[in-house]
Amino acid sequence: MQSSVRKPTDEQYAKFKALVENQLGLDWSKEKKYLLHGRLNTRLFELGINYDEYYELLIKDRSNREIELFYNFVTTNKTEFYREPAVFNWIRENIIPALREEIVNGLREKIRFWSAGCSTGEEAYSLSFETQALAGMLSDVSNGYKILATDINTQALVAAHKGIYNQEDIKNVSHPILNKYFIHTPSSGNMITTYMIKDLIKNLIQFRILNFLDKNYPIATNFDIILCRNVLYYFKDDVREKIFEKLIDYLSPGGYLILSGTETGHRIKSATKIRPNIFKKTH
Ligand SMILES: C[S@@+](CC[C@H](N)C(=O)[O-])C[C@H]1O[C@@H](n2cnc3c(N)ncnc32)[C@H](O)[C@@H]1O
Questions:
Q1: What is the dihedral of CA 128, 195, 152, 278, to 10 degrees?
Q2: Which atom of ligand 1 is nearest to the CA of 122?
């Protein structure tokens, strides 16, 4: 029995390439035909349609249901707890002591962080483990401490919200953090070992859908730190630059935009580069 659909032709690929560029900002100019086919083959087979028919379905999809699935298929969600430990070390050494001092001196009663492109949640949770003590210091203030975590991929957001991880997922998490912030359920029968984030941490984080290409972001606050790592790397240059500027708009004065350690060489007009991948909003 045939279990796959015919590969996309160059013309069919061009239509999908334009679609992901226009709707998500992704740069598919370097041949991604195999990625398209690898990610969509099964879905097209299930629906019993070819690439042209699937494209038509997407552009006529008034319910947005198939578009949502399509975005879930084509986005790349690789992430891990404490990805690039140097970033977390830098936050621990440079930002947390200053925030702590401001709280102690009565100069601050609100902390806001944003994991922008959070995938399945590991980045936001890692940040919350590191800064949970600050949340404790602000516990008398309603909504004193909050982390926003956003992504376009709804399947990743559902997983992030559940906060249940397996043995492999938690390999970078230290024992003290595991003991303090996860509920460990050992394997039994055919159930695998799981580690679930405790509510104490989950309640600090709001997971929401957001497309970076949207004209207006439904966000009414400014942030002390925005982590946007391994996301805009996949974007077209001009789109990436516009989004950088938009993210800087969402920083409080003195706030930081942190990219991944490999995302260097960028210039952002409205912020000062203080490390190859870290920008500070100075006014
Ligand atoms: C490789 S993951 C990075 C996860 C995490 N920041 C990290 O560094 O481990 C990139 C994420 O960006 C999201 N993404 C891609 N295009 C997007 C868009 N237009 N709007 C919002 N999120 C997008 C993907 O769904 C994916 O979860």
A1: 40
A2: 9
pLDDT in tens, 226-252: 999 999 988 989 999 999 999 999 999
Q: What is the end-to-end Cα distance of the chain in Å, rounded?
A: 64
Residue from 118, 119, 213, 277 to probe ligand 1 pocket by mutation (most atoms less than 8 Å from CB):
119
Say which residue the tokens 């980045």 belong to.
123
| pTM of the full structure | 0.97
Whole-angstrom distance, CA of residue 143 vs CA of residue 164 = 25
**What is the set of domains in the chain, with CATH numbers?**
10-74 (1.10.155.10), 85-165+196-280 (3.40.50.150)
- Residue 243 tokens read as 């989004």
- Contacts (Cβ under 8 Å, ≥6 apart) of 238: none
Alpha helix (H) ranges present in 60-215?
Answer: 65-74, 85-90, 96-104, 122-137, 154-162, 175-181, 199-202
